[in-house]
Amino acid sequence: MVDILILTAGGTIDKIYFDAKSSFQVGESPIGELLREANLTLDVEVRSVLRKDSLEMTDADRALLRQAVEEATAEKIVITHGTDTMVETGKALAGITGKTIVLTGAMQPARFRSTDALFNVASALTASQILPAGVYIAMNGRILDPRRARKNVAANRFELLTES
Description:
There is one protein chain. By secondary structure, the chain is an alpha/beta fold. It has a single domain, classed as L-asparaginase, N-terminal domain (Rossmann fold). It is built from 4 helices and 10 strands, in the order E-E-E-H-E-H-E-H-E-H-E-E-E-E. Strand 7 and strand 8 form a beta hairpin. The termini are far apart. InterPro entries: Asp/glu_Ase-like_sf, Asparaginase/glutaminase-like, L-asparaginase_N, L-asparaginase_N_sf. It comes from Geothermobacter hydrogeniphilus. Pfam families: Asparaginase (PF00710). GO terms for molecular function: asparaginase activity.
């Protein structure tokens, strides 16, 4: 059995620039390659579930991710995901017992030289090993509960919701 299962769902972290189209599109995830280059000593399996921008994700897509998590034999699961709807997916995964599930992503594609992808994935891998069962978001050096988190688009970061 693997130490950690990494499920990829798309999002900015997996985007590729298509010069002929002058656009970015979600492509094959570079996560496995990034982890090999980082000399990772954990036994991980990377499995693609979706290749979507998170703004295009539907409830059916979230149900597919939930099913993949529920059916996985691994107890530690990292999900790479687009940042725009990561909180919604985190909430959709609530209630799964016996597993530590950590969602992460990037503000810049992993293929860029200047990206937060490797740091965020490394944070998620570490969090999945030390946190109790539950659902978490690992972004910007923080571990957040998706029920109390939001993406602050103006500040380009994730943060705790403020009590009002």
